[in-house]
Amino acid sequence: MPASGATVEHPRESIDLPIEPEGVDLFLSAPDKKSHGEFLQRVQQMLLDHAFQSTHRESKVARYVEPERLKEIMDLDLKREPSSMEALIGHIRDTMKYSVNTGHPFFVNQLFSSLDPYGLAGGWVTDSLNPSVYTYEVSPVFSLMEEAVLKEMRTIVGFTEGDGIFSPGGSIANGYAINCARFNKMPQIKEKGLHGLPRLVLFTSEDAHYSIKKMAALQGIGSDNVYLVKTEANGKMDVRDLRAQVEKSLEEGAVPFMVSATAGTTVLGAYDPIEEIHEVCKDHGMWLHVDAAWGGGALVSKKYRHLLRGIEKSDSVTWNPHKMLAAPQQCSTFLTKHTKILSQCHSAQAQYLFQKDKFYDTSYDTGDKHIQCGRRADVFKFWLMWKAKGTDGLEKHVDRVFDSAEYFTEKIRGRPGFKLFVERPECTNVTFWYVPPSLLGKESEPDFNQKLHKVAPLMKERMMREGTMMMTYQPLREHPNFFRLVIQNSSLNHNDMDYIVAEIERLGRNL
Amino acid sequence: MPASGATVEHPRESIDLPIEPEGVDLFLSAPDKKSHGEFLQRVQQMLLDHAFQSTHRESKVARYVEPERLKEIMDLDLKREPSSMEALIGHIRDTMKYSVNTGHPFFVNQLFSSLDPYGLAGGWVTDSLNPSVYTYEVSPVFSLMEEAVLKEMRTIVGFTEGDGIFSPGGSIANGYAINCARFNKMPQIKEKGLHGLPRLVLFTSEDAHYSIKKMAALQGIGSDNVYLVKTEANGKMDVRDLRAQVEKSLEEGAVPFMVSATAGTTVLGAYDPIEEIHEVCKDHGMWLHVDAAWGGGALVSKKYRHLLRGIEKSDSVTWNPHKMLAAPQQCSTFLTKHTKILSQCHSAQAQYLFQKDKFYDTSYDTGDKHIQCGRRADVFKFWLMWKAKGTDGLEKHVDRVFDSAEYFTEKIRGRPGFKLFVERPECTNVTFWYVPPSLLGKESEPDFNQKLHKVAPLMKERMMREGTMMMTYQPLREHPNFFRLVIQNSSLNHNDMDYIVAEIERLGRNL
């Protein structure tokens, strides 16, 4: 027996591999060259073609079909019998044809968009390796890569030490924040639960993402115990109201334990004043979380990182590279300045997975910090993008999307038919009403808002059916429906902004 | 203006696309043919080669390198400057080289393995479309596909009606179960939280997955309020002890609200007796959840579905196609027979995303049932596999992995040096000690268990360093470390089982 560590070429002649005849191996779970090579190659060619076509301005953003009709076209039902290779290729073609091209330049509908070629390649590689990131043993490369990316992101935030994890989306990352904040206040909750404890209360603005309430409900705190703080007209948290609500909760005998500030609100793109909120947290011993899922990307820009001034004073941060930094869905992180809390708060020390008698340094087995067990590697696509572009490239990307939003804002400011919701947008969200010709000049009529409320849904229907653009709309508080343009795609330029303005006018001209 | 619904070819001459000169476009977020086509094609060829090589029996399962050394090799740090294309190709090559080949036939280490070619193609397609599944508007195909897959899975479980969602792993799916069960008992918890309520208690076996405790901690119930029910020698829940513990909780003044039975425990592969547990739940008004994350695959087999007898009487089920059915990581579902509870329990009705004044039937906007907002489409890879193989193919796959496990069990039964932990394994987990030559016949010596405990870690180190196989070990309760072979790869055959036995003997022969 050679010494441990040596490579041995031992005989394997006993393993005679029966090559399955073509056509009967559909139930096998490892590709063979004969019958799967052709299939995989054909799919790869389709993907390459699609990557270029679907991001081309001359192509459609989407090919809208009603749900019932799409069910017929797609033949979605699952049957007992296998399908032929041609049928499978057809299914893939239909899936591509009827899916929305989220990489298209005129998909400005969500807080994610674009199709980054390095991110795409990274995703393909990840699929091919099919990892689950919980132990160094099973995911050596991705475990270390997560450490490197999270460390660099913490450095950019301004945390000199700390910890971090990848999360399946910003909502769950915000849930991690709630759990850490709660554990920090009352560590016994992990074992004993909330039973018999005073009522816990946390604070976030009325414009914060809905996940704060959703996760508070899941975590047994209750959505009513998320106190919503008023915002100013531009969507920033009103810190005087925060102070008042904290006082109120104390008078009620509750325990205020956390504020979730937002850096880039979902609709208006507002950045809450982190430094002022930090003062309130300090005064009342509350955990300061910053939900920078969307607006965190600005941190890589010398020009725009002032928007998050004070973030280094926070206890934790949600930051999704799949949003402003345009990594593929899904790439979401939770960062904290506290070095041990993620382990303390979440670990369950399962003996079958996190054995302590392994032969390597098990501090690299980071899985127990998570609430997930099996977990996809969301890191590689972002790491590869970052390597490809460098931090300089990420900065140029961010500066360019801000530039597009600023150009668009100035273009529609004062333009007939356009009315900005936020006069001076802070992020790349540009929110505005389009007032069609038939309503222009009728702003004082009593049913104006009621009529304006119906304009955006109608225009959205038209852009969907024609496939020329996708941009979302929403109401907010007492305000009627308005549009939100939102930009994370740095291949967009001023000409594209001109196109979007012209397209809005075209879609609404006879309303 | 043509009628809504028509396709218009309107002029786009104003959009003059400046083609960026090669080399300066690294920060753009849409692929262009000139500089990215070559890169993506090279990556595709590498992936194709890797898919075949990494699943070949003559290749290594892993190429183990110590963490500190791997950090040096991989150049993981992120820099300000961009990288060249050659450097990126090198990074991808290294990532493949040093990652574990989880698709290799001799990766029998976890509850997932293999590399299904249809699943792989499905993953690549999903990456290329970069969807987020929350609204029909943004993900028409995947929204309908999820509905079709979840419906068919519910049918196979035996639920005549109900609902379901995809989840980022079985742990969070079990958390969904806890939340539904709790909401079912006391719906006010969603808004009001657990404050002021009696202590809630749930039950699962001592061999159940650690996620039950982890999620109970996250959800404010507290890990101590997960009462662990004793198991019998083969790992099945002892229903008399369950009854006793429920009684005990009632005497304590607590509110028992849920039992989580396991169908295929993580280590021993035991199937809890669902029908008997259902009787206890009925008697005490408790929600019956079945964590079939691992063992649920047996449901597609006429020969093995009896293992889950009574599952149709449960309230909810966790079932991960990425485990026994060998879909790629990650593909995990939560199914329930209750039609409305997922919406009631989780919805937050965000107005910016789930607008009710859309032009289509918004019942297809299923995102609000989830705790995630943005969410990857995990459905397509599994749907494509299922289409490719048919349910018949899935059944053959399951029958084959059971056959391999049974062959292995009989091969080692009574073989010198091997001792089965569970004499008659129910699932494809085969658990056993390997007693090396130096310890054979010394079973009655006082330090035998202590010495045996060290054998599996040493053999694991050897197999990792040589890359010939990966199989896990763990202790359980008072028992010393033992091996767990676990099979989800239907390309494994009897010869492979012979190889694994021979390899174990080779690795342990001088211990």
UniProtKB/TrEMBL annotation, chains A, B:
GO molecular function (one): pyridoxal phosphate binding
N6-(pyridoxal phosphate)lysine found at: 323
Organism (species): Cimex lectularius (Bed bug)
GO term, biological process aspect, one: carboxylic acid metabolic process
Quaternary structure and partners: Homodimer.
Protein name: Black
Homology family: Belongs to the group II decarboxylase family.
Name of one Pfam family that matches: Pyridoxal_deC
GO cellular component: cytoplasm
